[in-house]
Amino acid sequence: MRFTCQWLRHPSSNLLTLGLLVLVLPLFSRFALGWSHPYGYLSDLAIGSLLLIALHQRVWWLGIPLLLTWCVFTLSTAELVNAVGRMPEPGDLQYLGDAQFVSHSTQGSGLSEPLLAMAMAVLLGLYLGLRSWQKKHPASPLSGAWLLVPLSLFAVHSAGQQLKPNEADQWLQFNLPHKLLAESVTGGQQQWADWLAGDEPNSPVDISALNQLDLSGTPLLQQAGSARNVLIITLEGVTGAYIQASRQAIASSYAQDPMPRLSQWAERGMLTTDYVLHGHQTIRGLYAMLCGDYNKLDSGTPKGVELLNNPARSEQCLPAQLRERGLSTHFLQGAGLRFMAKDQIMPQMGFDKTLGRDWFSNKPYIEFPWGMDDKAYFEGALRYVQQLRSKRQPWMLTLLTVGTHQPYSAPQAYLDRQPNAKLAAIAYLDDAVADFLAALEQQGVLQDTLVIITSDESHGLENVRLASAWGFNLLLAPEQAQLPALKQGVYGHVDLTASVLDYFAFPVPSTIAGRSLLRDYSSGREILSYTNGLLRQHDGQGTLSECDFQGICRRYASPGFIADSAKYLGRFSGKSARLISQRAQQLDQSLSSSQGEQHYQFANSQPIQLNATVGDDWTDNLVGAQYLTLDKNTQTTVTLKIRAVGMDSQGATLQLKTKEYDRNVDLPIPQLPLLTRDQPVEVTFSFDNPNTRKAFSFHLLGQGQGAIEIVDFSVSSAALDTEAKLLAAQETADELTPVQ
Question: What pLDDT, on a 0 to 100 scale, did the predictor assign at position 198?
Answer without folding.
Answer: 54
